[in-house]
Design brief:
The chain has a domain of 101 residues: Roll (Pdz3 Domain), CATH 2.30.42. It is elongated, with a radius of gyration of 24 Å. With 376 residues, the protein is α+β, with helices and mostly antiparallel strands. The strands form five sheets. The chain has a four-stranded antiparallel sheet.
Length: 376
């Protein structure tokens, strides 16, 4: 029966989570395409054999396919799921050409492509706004509540009630932001701007790598200074208005985006290792762990975080991704001429190779991490 429990806790939440995020992404493409007068011939959640499908009054075939690892909108004039131009597009009638994607003005193509990542970002903002509005916004101030004896923080001179103003030049307004900046640090020390009473000064605090046991039993390594936040009695919980909830949700989404981009930049520059790069297996593992050990709200927040990452990754300028199409359309708008189909084909083949490499590399990282989790 254990295998059945694992299916319920890991496979089902993963399929639900990925299905919702893919639906949101493709719905963005779909709605803007419909608004621009482009016919959507197929809206698919998943790839491969069709498990369920129906065709609506406007001729769009909606379907759920057997392999739940993505999805696509296929527009009139597309040759395949990657939106390559169909070979017989010139044989379309004049009426169909008005609704075919390849014959649209470049600005319309750009809007349709950007709508997918935009929908993922909008979804995340709506989730955060709902959480902030209905549950209140809970923050721990960036104030030290405890300095662990013998820690590098104690040796550096940090004291209880010190307020941390910035970490390595990045302003922090909550203890959660302090933790994020410590995680982002690539050096062995962090530079803290600290306020003690009326005095403001800076300290260089060494970081120690500590192995912790997560709720799922996995061993994780974290950089730490050796301080804890103030107690739960001193946390700030405020009930905010709906407009302010959206403002704060937008700020939170932007903050997550910035941190993600910083992490990617650190990997590219070699300052950070690629161990944090994960793929489908890690998403399934994390969604399963949250479904087993946390509540519905935590699962929805995790979904919002993944939605931001999905939207951001799709904006990377890699051919086959939305960002690759954006680059092509921007170039065409600037040069006022369409790129040669052979050049586009070569770019898409290169992009396919890059994506396959990244997927294999991420999967390898996932397998190694699972091996250490099970056998260490």
């Amino acid at each position: 029966m254990e295998w059945l429990v694992n299916v319920i806790y890991y496979v089902v939440p993963f399929i639900v989570l990925l299905g919702i995020l893919v639906f949101v992404h493709e719905l963005g493409h779909f709605l803007v395409a419909r608004f621009c007068g482009v016919k959507v011939e197929e809206f698919s959640i998943g790839f491969g054999k069709e498990l369920w499908g129906r065709t609506d009054k406007k001729g769009t075939h909606w379907k759920i396919a057997a392999v739940p690892l993505g999805g696509y909108c296929r527009f009139l004039g597309d040759g395949d799921e990657t939106s390559s131009t169909s070979g017989d597009v010139e044989n379309l009638s004049d009426e169909d050409k008005k609704r075919a994607f390849p014959f649209q003005p470049t600005w319309k193509k750009l809007a349709i492509v950007l709508a997918g990542p935009g929908a993922n970002y909008l979804f995340a903002i709506l989730v955060f706004a709902a959480v902030f509005f209905f549950l209140g916004k809970v923050t721990f101030p960036p104030v030290i509540g405890e300095v662990i004896a013998g820690s590098s923080a104690e040796k550096a001179g940090l004291q209880v009630n010190d307020r941390i103003l910035s970490v390595d030049g990045h302003e922090v307004k909550s203890f959660d932001e302090v933790s994020r900046e410590i995680d982002m640090a690539t050096a062995e020390k962090v530079n803290l701007k600290v306020k003690r009473g009326e005095k403001v000064f800076t300290l260089n605090v060494p970081l120690s790598v500590t192995e912790l046991e997560a709720a799922n039993g996995a061993k994780i390594k974290r950089k730490m200074m050796g301080v804890r936040s103030v107690s739960t009695v001193e946390l700030n919980k405020e009930q905010i208005s709906l407009p302010q909830a959206f403002v704060d949700a937008g700020a939170e989404t932007w903050q997550i985006t910035k941190l993600t981009l910083r992490g990617v930049g650190q990997m590219i520059s070699g300052k950070r290792g690629t161990d944090d790069l994960g793929g489908i297996i890690r998403i399934a593992e994390m969604s399963g762990d949250i479904s087993k050990q946390s509540g519905f709200i935590d699962f929805v927040i995790f979904m919002a975080l993944l939605s931001i990452n999905l939207g951001l990754i799709n904006l990377f300028p890699i051919p086959l991704l939305d960002g690759g199409h954006v680059v092509i359309y921007v170039v065409e708008m600037v040069t006022r001429r369409e790129l040669n189909e052979k050049i586009k084909d070569a770019m898409f083949k290169f992009g396919f190779g890059v994506l396959v490499f990244l997927m294999l590399f991420a999967t390898w990282n996932d397998v190694l991490r699972l091996f250490h989790r099970w056998f260490s």
